[in-house]
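Comment thread on ticket #2218

A.B. wrote:
> Attaching the input chain for the structure job we discussed in standup.
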Amino acid sequence: MTGRFKTVAAVDFWKPACDTFQYNHPEIKPELIFNADINQLIVSGELEDICKKNGPFDLVVGGPPCQGLSLAGKRIQDDPRNQLFKSFVKAVEIARPKAFIMENVPGLLSMQSGLINKAVLEAFKEIGYNHFENHQPAILKAEKYGVPQIRRRLFYIGFDKNIDLDQDFTWPPEPTHSDEKKVTNIQQQDLFGSQITIPHAVTVEDAISDLPSIKSGEGSDVVEYSLLKPVSSLFQSLMRDWSMCSRNFERPMLFNHEASKHTPPLIKLIEVARPGASVDPKYTDSRKWDPKSPGYTVKALGAGGGSTNRRAFHYDPHTPRGSTIRENARIQSFPDWYRFIGPKTHQMTQVGNAVPPLLAKAIGLTLSKFLDKQ
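C.D. wrote:
> Ran it. Output below, let me know if you need it in another format.
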């Protein structure tokens, strides 16, 4: 999305994620999309070979789970759930990029009174990635970067010790939107004291009101674009822009817009719920969208599929149903050309696990501007 980076290789242990990635990125060599355990690629020496043949690299990006991190004294214990974090650090050490980005849950900063965070920073310093005093780990609000969703994620960014950080590096990225939920633009001062206007947070209505109206059990995995309603927001225009799609053999279509079929009792619960309120008391994280606010955090389904109720419900009183994959993808800021592959439960998890593309774009822009100066 920045136009400044090109993905060279990718690895994921979960095949559905690799299938979706391969479909949406036919420009990447299939042999460089690895459905594998990253640790096995490291131990076997294959990752080192990949880096020698395809490097050098500017950036390594990953989101290793760190929920299992714990400390013994000042060192991270050998908890099996730590292995992916250690593998990410090792991958950075092998690839030796100019910079890395690591995404995680916000709670990591405060775990064990901040000691886990210190241990993570030390692990990167040991392999020659430092300067963290210039760019502390930051919790970013997705809605402040044009994502129509209230979502908080923690980002670590690190540079090779040979990179000169005396030049200006903006971190965290400058917000492009207000996080106000009111449908008004916000006045604020820029660095020079001048009044500037930044737009309000993108709402659910801004994000999805142009999608075809469907009821419970209706819709299709592929829909003609002619069935969409007229564009009513800048965000919708951005989502419908196919100029960045690498699949030149396809004409624009709308994907993954199929509603699950609900029971009559659940439909009744949806109908009587107010916008912003809980729909089913048994599922506290299932609420009806408020059309005038950003959406709730899009979540992945639980292990083994979880509950299909673990989602938002549409605000339109004429369509009492749960959200579709495409609606969730819009709330995550995935453009319409990005198609999710596999069973619907897998698609839902892929959408929920992702970093919102517009948030990633904001990080990519501030990083590319800095690296261009080097």
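A.B. wrote:
> Thanks. Noting for the ticket: The radius of gyration is 21 Å.
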